[in-house]
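Consider the tokenized backbone below.
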């Protein structure tokens, strides 16, 4: 017998997908069959409209800040209305999907999927529903009666869940990070593979799927300042083309699109320049690289930024290429080269496994049952 797990992610940015992949890796090692499902796709023909609306709001930070801080975080009538609208479409679609392909576990890393799975709990009480919220605060749409276990990565996030469900079962765990980051190569090895001189200043500028700010101009200005720039565009095709155009005129720009080499790229860099997305920040900390965070992500990004600064090993800068370059050069003056060995970042898997046992979910029970039947 093999356990079947559905991981509900979302196609807004890349952070949710990276979290889902981290958790999927662990479950697969325990013998589970994994299926990934994009929560946004459950909106059906509303999916494209929903993504456009979200993209437009992110492009107007004040508007999204207003939605997040005035409505989503405290849980206003507007948040309830948004939740009801989404659930009316997502719950039937998720129910039909699970009827076609039953699952023994539903694990959500996206608020829309988390709410839908919780609402189906009464129809399948034996099927565990687990939610992982990576942000420093869980807004109202994350927290719905019917979730067996909430996983969070900070005490503040734990309190934010209990704001809405005082008796919720919550566990604080380290942020899930894919296994490859714990085994990233040394800085010397990574630079040799990437063609970066051993003693040269080098930064990783990584887009997490949002196409933030004037990132191409920042890359160009950093390269002109004598810095080797590993420029990762994620799934932003137009941005990748701009990076590749910059590389034609400068051997200091190393362009990438969507890449599975991020552990190697972080290992090669002295500094990681990024948005304060929970996944990217956790990955950089595992590899042991300081962060320069762009104060560009509205809503939950504001909360996450302050949390990362409080953790240490991180700086912040404004959006302009000049501000990015000045802050990066200042941070580069403080780092040693080659970089020291990886941080002793705690592994997240033992805490996740222990949290699952609190709800009676033994991750290896299917594997053990199969072995015992032979």
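A designed sequence for it:
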């Amino acid at each position: 017998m093999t356990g079947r797990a559905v991981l509900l992610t979302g196609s807004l940015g890349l952070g949710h997908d990276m979290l889902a992949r981290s958790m999927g890796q662990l479950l697969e090692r325990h013998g589970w069959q994994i299926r990934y499902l994009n929560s946004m796709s459950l909106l059906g023909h509303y999916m494209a409209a929903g993504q456009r609306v979200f993209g437009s709001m992110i492009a107007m930070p004040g508007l999204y800040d207003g939605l997040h801080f005035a409505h989503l975080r405290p849980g206003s009538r507007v948040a309830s209305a948004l939740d009801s609208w989404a659930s009316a479409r997502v719950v039937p679609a998720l129910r039909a999907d699970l009827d076609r392909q039953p699952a023994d576990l539903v694990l959500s890393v996206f608020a829309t999927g988390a709410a839908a799975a919780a609402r189906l709990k009464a129809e399948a009480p034996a099927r565990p529903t687990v939610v992982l919220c990576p942000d420093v605060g869980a807004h109202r749409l994350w927290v719905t009666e019917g979730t067996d276990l909430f996983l969070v990565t900070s005490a503040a996030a734990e309190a934010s869940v209990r704001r809405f469900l005082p008796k919720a079962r919550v566990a604080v765990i380290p942020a899930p990070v894919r296994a490859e980051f714990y085994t990233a190569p040394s800085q010397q090895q990574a630079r040799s593979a990437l063609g970066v001189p051993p003693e040269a200043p080098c930064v990783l500028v990584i887009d997490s799927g949002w196409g933030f700010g004037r990132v191409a101009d920042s890359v160009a200005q950093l390269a002109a300042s004598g810095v080797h720039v590993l420029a990762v565009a994620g799934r932003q095709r137009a941005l990748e083309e701009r990076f590749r155009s910059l590389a034609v005129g400068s051997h200091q720009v190393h362009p990438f699109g969507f890449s599975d080499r991020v552990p190697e790229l972080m290992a090669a860099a002295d500094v990681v320049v990024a948005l304060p997305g929970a996944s990217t920040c956790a990955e950089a900390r595992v590899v042991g690289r300081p962060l320069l965070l762009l104060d560009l992500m509205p809503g939950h990004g504001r909360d996450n930024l302050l949390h990362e600064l409080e953790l240490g090993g991180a700086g912040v800068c404004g959006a302009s290429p000049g501000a990015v370059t000045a802050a990066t050069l200042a941070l580069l003056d403080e780092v040693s080269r080659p970089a020291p060995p990886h941080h002793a970042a705690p592994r997240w898997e033992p805490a996740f496994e222990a949290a699952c046992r609190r709800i009676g979910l033994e991750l290896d029970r299917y594997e053990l049952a199969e072995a015992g039947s032979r």
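Residues 247 and 330 are 24 Å apart (CA to CA).
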